[in-house]
Amino acid sequence: MVKDFYKLLKLNKLVKNHRIKFLALLMADLLGIRYLGVRFDPILGCNLRCKMCHFSNPDWRENNQGVFSQNEVQRIAKLFFERTYQLYIGCAAEPTLYKNFTDLVKLGKEYKVPFVGFVTNGQLLNEEDIDDFIAYGLNELTLSLHGVKKDTYEKFMVNASYQKFKKLLANVDKFKSKKNSELPGIRLNYTVNPDNLNELEYFFDEFGEFDINTLQIRPIMDLGDTAYKNKDMTSYIPKYQKIIDELRKECHKRDITFMANRLDPTYSEFNYSGVILDYVRRYISPQIVWQKGFDWKNETYDEYCQRIQWRKTLFNNIFTNIHKIDAPDEPLSYDVD
């Protein structure tokens, strides 16, 4: 199932015609086929203050707080999960701060969501959590890191321990071997900036011993007034491309899925591949459940879609010029190898 998801990402890149994509979405919606990608933040908070993240901004933290009750989580699952193909727990915040967070994986699987992922910095995960993830059938554990070397990792991921991060990777390998389980697959997300780019070429010197399934290289995005200010990658693109090419070759040798933004690392071009993203993705947090107008506590998903004429929107987009459809702020420009 992990590989199947990345095949869909490849397909999205290969199919250039947005009309075909919106026709496929409309048919899936009419036939009741799962197509939603749910990004679920059960709590808005983080144990770290990563310098490239909005949590490094005290004003942002003050204005972005909240936590779902267990009853609210059950309501959200009832509304969305039967329609969900891919559920990622953790998106813009740290899900391990939520009480009994492994139960969220279990809940997704009870609704038979084909792909459940968990996105975290990993600092609060313990052996019992790993055991739960394996028992509940977590498909993918995505771990963030912003430095290959210890000093850089701990410089950018404020309050994190490099030693603890490596120990977590070793423990996941150990428990998977002990349980004879291929799941969860490990995905490492590396956010590149001008100050951590050069050491990226030594990635496998430090992390080659671990069973990594997917490596994603993501150039820095401007998330506003964060602690880190050196966000312009323009003059570093030749070096970036050279390192990306070498990592791609090494990942191929190791049978690791490699994701990297090679075509538009400065996010300056129109996001053709991402046009469909906002019509598939449902972002859910204590501050918003999909859209502001959705009265999710009193209204069903079908009732809301009927009220906003969701299928009519999908139908109209089949015949709309791509440049007249709003592209999302979040890019979808990754090549998947």
What report would you give on this structure?
The chain is of the alpha/beta class and 337 residues long. It has a single domain, classed as Alpha-Beta Barrel (TIM Barrel). Helices cover 39% and strands 16% of the residues. The chain contains 13 helices and 12 strands. The chain has helices spanning 2-14, 18-31, 58-63, 70-80, 102-110, 127-136, 150-156, 162-179, 203-207, 237-253, 277-280, 301-307, 310-318, and strands at 36-40, 43-44, 66-67, 84-89, 115-120, 140-145, 185-192, 214-219, 257-260, 281-285, 288-289, 335-336. The strands form 2 sheets. The protein has a 10-stranded mixed sheet. Strands 2-3 form a two-stranded antiparallel ribbon. A hairpin with a 2-residue loop joins β10 and β11. The chain is globular and about 55 Å long. The two termini are 16 Å apart.
Please give a quick description of this structure:
With 337 residues, the protein is of the alpha/beta class. The chain has helices at 2-14, 18-31, 58-63, 70-80, 102-110, 127-136, 150-156, 162-179, 203-207, 237-253, 277-280, 301-307, 310-318; strands at 36-40, 43-44, 66-67, 84-89, 115-120, 140-145, 185-192, 214-219, 257-260, 281-285, 288-289, 335-336.
Low-confidence stretches: none
Would you tell me the structural class of the helices and strands? alpha/beta
Per DSSP E runs of 2 or more residues, the count of β-strands stands at 12
CATH superfamily: Aldolase class I
Distance separating the two termini: 16 Å
The value of Rg in angstroms is 20 Å
- Summed up, the domain count is 1
Question: What is the string of helix and strand elements?
Answer: HHEEHEHEHEHEHHEHEHEHEEHHE
Strand content: 15-25%
What is the topology, as strand order, of the major beta sheet?
11-10-1-4-5-6-7-8-9-12
Shape: globular
CATH topology: TIM Barrel
Biggest sheet features: 10 strands, mixed
The whole-number mean of residue pLDDT values reads 93
Question: Class in CATH?
Answer: Alpha Beta
Helix content: 25-40%
Count the DSSP helices: 13
